[in-house]
Design brief:
This protein has about 120 residues and is of the alpha+beta class. It has one domain: SCP2 sterol-binding domain (Nonspecific Lipid-transfer Protein, Chain A). About 40% of the residues lie in helices and about 25% in strands. The chain is built from 5 helices and 5 strands, in the order H-H-E-E-E-E-H-H-E-H. It has a 5-stranded mixed beta sheet. Helix 1 crosses helix 2. The longest helix has 17 residues. About 20% of the residues are buried.
Length: about 120
Amino acid sequence: MIELLEDIMNKFNKKVDENTQLFEKLKDINRTIQVELDENAFYHMRMLNGKIMEILPEAVKDPELPDLRILTDSDTFKGILNGTIKPLKAYAFHKIRFKGSLKDRLLLKDLLGGSKKKKRGK
């Protein structure tokens, strides 16, 4: 799972670098996102200035710290990350839940998919 998350991190950060609108939207966002899988596996990532800086295979030490928590099972999460499961469908069938502000929930659209707009510097 950590390899899949790191791959997603690299693709997301590359997208932020290449997409002017996405960069402008995310450049001031600093968040801690925690993924909690049913089998008691935890991962958390730190987003700094709109880019994911690290992914750690553990829960955040302070339970109040995650700005956004993603709760699901590993099969659903892997399916969303590799594109075989649509996030909205998983949400509609209660296969994934989110705990956080509406703004942070909307951040997931950019993290898990997002739109392809004009590239920065082009």
